[in-house]
Input
Amino acid sequence: MITLYRIIKFGLVNFWRNWVLSSASIIVLAISILIISAFVSFNFVLQKAVEGINQKVDLIAYFNDSADEAKISQLQDVLSSWPEVKQALYVSKNEALKKWLANAEDERLKTIINEKDNPLPRSLEVKLNSADQAQKVIDFFEQKENKSLISKVRYNRIVVEKIVSYSRAVTKVGIILSGIFVLVAIYVVLNTLRLAIYSRKEEIDIMKLVGASPGYIVFPFVVEGILFGFLGAIIAFILSLLTLQFGISALLPPEVMTELSSFLQLSRINLGILFLFQLFLGIIIGVICSLIGINRYLRKL
Amino acid sequence: MEKKILKPIVKVKNLAKIYPPNVNALLNVNFDLYDGEFVCLIGPSGSGKSTLIKLLICEERPTRGHIYVAGRDITTLRNKEVPYYRRRVGVVFQDFKLLPKLTVYENVAFALEVADATPAEIKKRVPFILELVGLKDRMKHFPNTLSGGERQRTAIARAIVNGPKLLIADEPTGNLDPKTSWEIIKLLLEINQRGTMILLATHAKEIVDKLNRRVIVLESGQVASSQQKTYNL
Output
């Protein structure tokens, strides 16, 4: 207990009295946290965007007028139970008419088509969770017992396939780019902390000669690493808030901005998650880099 | 005029250190240090003094031979045991080796803290030792605001605060002017009188002559002479 107290105190004293070195480490760590969070959020947004586009893909199956209502609703139930299917919406003849009337512009046609004389077919609008699952639904409609009910399946194969392949590529590129930047950021922090520890290698030798055990030498550096991470995360979070508040809105026109913020769901909860993420990142990087930095000086007796 | 029966606390036997590929820093060194002694270790540069001290504080391992301290062979200490050994041996260096970001008080307290001393012990012991070395009014100073002599006194205070049986001083006056040097030597004599064995490695012939104590002479890795001086100071 007293040892723990001493180690923490020693770490804090070193942190404070080496304030030039400490602030340099904190700033480098803050910038790295910012870069990493920017890329992780970028990937997150990209993922959401791809998901959003995928969810806009839907299939519509039009039924023959002779098809049995019970069988159609059975079909709807089966599709609704699939995990790939977000929603299977049944559109009756009347609803189809209403929809059509709402969109139709030609007044003459409007008088010809009415409730008593309605040529519009019943349909099932299937919304998918992801575009690459469309084929499964199509196969289902093509099955023998279902095929007889259906007059036509509307689905733009080329567009959907393009979306699928683009979204895969974009996600992949995003992850690779982020990975590279994250590695670069960590490498920079590692080298900064290594240099900071290198400049104090004589102190480490002195501690050993006085009879400090390895733990007594390492843990104050870990305490410093935690502090660097903590303060770096706070700076990174403030910078992120400023960027979101002023940086992006200055660059983008306001209507894009409102869409973006609703898209990002910039709520307090999400900002809280961002801060926790940065805190976690900062402390983990700070501690691990300190440990790596000090390790080589411990091997010598 | 033998006052008491002396027993060896440190026994160095057939000690050799060869740095690869073929630098023979120490060839075959044998000597004993007795309880309460003040011994000077002299020899020209490259004679192996520094190597011998490094071996004595377990900073390096010998190629051959043994060093027994209080009956224990320290050349076979496991890495984990080395810190415990060092807490029981005081060391003072030419370049002081103080922690630059700690005050005089904190530097001395550090040696007690790593040895798991209680806060009460530290509060009692550190001011006492600092008074002994004459630094009571410098407790809150940082090393870079002290003179060379004051820094060496701080280092000596740190070396003896754990109450070691043996204090090794490696050229402690190397960076000091003659007057300050002699003050440091007098402090070492005082510590010796309180019962701590002292091994003083030095270049300064005038100090060795004036001290008139037992002298171990190292020459090209071997003990050239190790006479037993009578105590007549």
